[in-house]
Amino acid sequence: MNDLRRGFAVAVAIARKDAISELRGRQAAGSTLFFAALVLLLFGFALGPDSQRLAEAAPGLLWLAIVFGGLLTMARLHQLEADDGAFEQLALYPVDRRAIYAGKALAGAAAMLVLGGLLLPVVAILYAIPIGAAWVPLLVAVVLGAIGFAAVGTAYAGLTVRMRAREVMLPLLMLPVVAPLLLAAVKASVAALSGDPLGELGSWLQLLAAFDVIMLVVGAGTYGFLLED
Amino acid sequence: MPQTTIYVAPRLAGTLGTVPPAVATVELARLFGRSAALAGVSLTVEMGRTVALLGPNGAGKTTLLRILATAIRPSYGSLAIDGIDALRDPEQVRGRAVYLSHATGHYDDLTAAENLRFATAMFGWGDREGHAVALEALDTVGLADAAGQRVRTFSAGMRKRLALARILVARPSLLLLDEPHAALDGDGMALVDSLIGLWREAGVTVIVASHQADRVASLADATVRLDGGLLAEVSGPGVVAGPVGASQRPRTAVATVDR
Fold first, then answer.
1. How large is the greatest C-alpha to C-alpha distance in chain B, in angstroms?
2. Based on the structure, what is the number of domains in chain A?
3. Under 8 Å between Cβ of A227 and A90
């Protein structure tokens, strides 16, 4: 019980530290949001004024923007550790590696949630989509998607943070793994926005939740090895 | 220097009441590619000793300290810290062996106080006591007035002082200091000397790698000189070149201020 409490305190301290750094490095966080919003805007122009077409493409474009922004966010949260040897220092603290992973994943999920939460209304306004009652299942999809993306992203950012070509390696390694998550998230979003005529929303959300659990367990189990030399 | 509390790890007993050595390495080697930074170092350091680790650039001092701190694994050889097999059980060694490296390991967008509060959480202090311990450590290293300042604005010397403060909030039994005087002004260097004296009085084993041979030799019980990744010279009490068994003579506990 004491170990669990200590692990929780460590995870919260790490997430808090990352959140403060992220909030104070407003330029980086702001540019991520701007980049994601720009993706949505450009696709809006490319697809033209056909509102039917825009509504059909909106779920996919929402997740495309979340993925682009999320990749930058995941890389940045570990870049904080790469500066001035902080990652080695973090590895030398007498704490459970799973707690370090939990803290970094918690910070990543929180950042992804903020990103997703801000992009949702942007999509609704840009593509003129009446979200209406769909906002609850959409938000659930964003929450589950953010957790899964952060679970995978934390592990792979830990793997690539010491690499010279980390900016290239992170998406290369991560995107194939998160493909099922993105598929389920897009399908869940489509179902939510269309009123779920086929009754498949629950299944896609369950798939998202299962993906999250599996990736969190795998990430927590392997992250310790990434911290070793 | 203001009043300073030194925290230390509880002593570990060896078999039959003997005291295990603080450091025991056998044929420790580390390869980087094809070049050997360490080429077979066997060294035993008695608990509570202060050791000056000397040698020219590239001698293997930093590599040895990083292996002792469990930051990197050796390519060959074995290592025990306080009688704990550090290669099999590095988690148990971390926290007992605390390392001050060249890279100070701070977070630039956090203030000095926030960096230190984070360190206290990592070292297992509770919220309230961690706050008090962090403030005292900042005061000790002369950063009390800069506690609310972001580390991004710090000079190299201030960053080093903050790294020293981080060690003060740890509870080590073995301190591994890599060039602790580097980047510091005269007062800062004197502060390091005072702290080494305090850790020594508290019974902490201290290994100091430095190019300031005279300075650290005057602080130390013993001297270990490396050259080309090999032990070139070992002199002074409490340090032996080569593996030896645990000391059969239990040492009297040195007075310490523990929490």
1. 53
2. 1
3. yes
Contact with chain A for residue B118, Cβ under 8 A? yes
Note whether A89 contacts B: Cβ–Cβ < 8 A: yes
Q: What is the ipTM of this complex?
A: 0.88
Pairing state of beta strands B174-178 and B205-209?
parallel
A166 interfacial to chain B (CB closer than 8 Å): no
Residue B244: pLDDT band (50, 70, 90) is: low
- Min mean pLDDT across A77-91, B36-50, B130-144, B216-230 is at A77-91
Q: Which residue of A has its CA nearest to B72?
A: A229
Question: In what side-by-side order are the strands of the sheet with B35-45?
Answer: B84-85, B76-81, B23-32, B35-45, B239-241
Q: Is the pLDDT of residue B64 over 60?
A: yes
How far apart, in whole angstroms, are the C-alpha atoms of residue B257 and residue B31? 40
| Residue B121 sits at the chain A interface (C-beta within 8 Å) | yes
A22, A80, A93, best to mutate vs chain B, most B CBs in 10 Å: A93
**Mutation site, B109, B114, B118, B164, interface A, largest A CB count within 10 A:** B109
Give dist(CA B55, CA B103) in Å, integer.
Answer: 20
Domain ranges of chain B: 15-241
Report the alpha-carbon angle B231-B236-B242, nearest 5.
Answer: 40
Residues of B in contact with A88 (CB under 8 A): 71, 101, 103, 105
Query: CA-to-CA distance for B239 and A60, rounded, in angstroms?
Result: 66
Homologous superfamily in CATH for domain B15-241:
P-loop containing nucleotide triphosphate hydrolases (3.40.50.300)
Closest residue in A to B67 (Cα) is A229
Question: What residues make up the domain containing A83?
Answer: 2-227
Distance CA B167, CA B133 (A): 11
Residue A85 with chain B: CB contacts under 8 Å: 101-105
Q: What is the pTM of this model?
A: 0.88
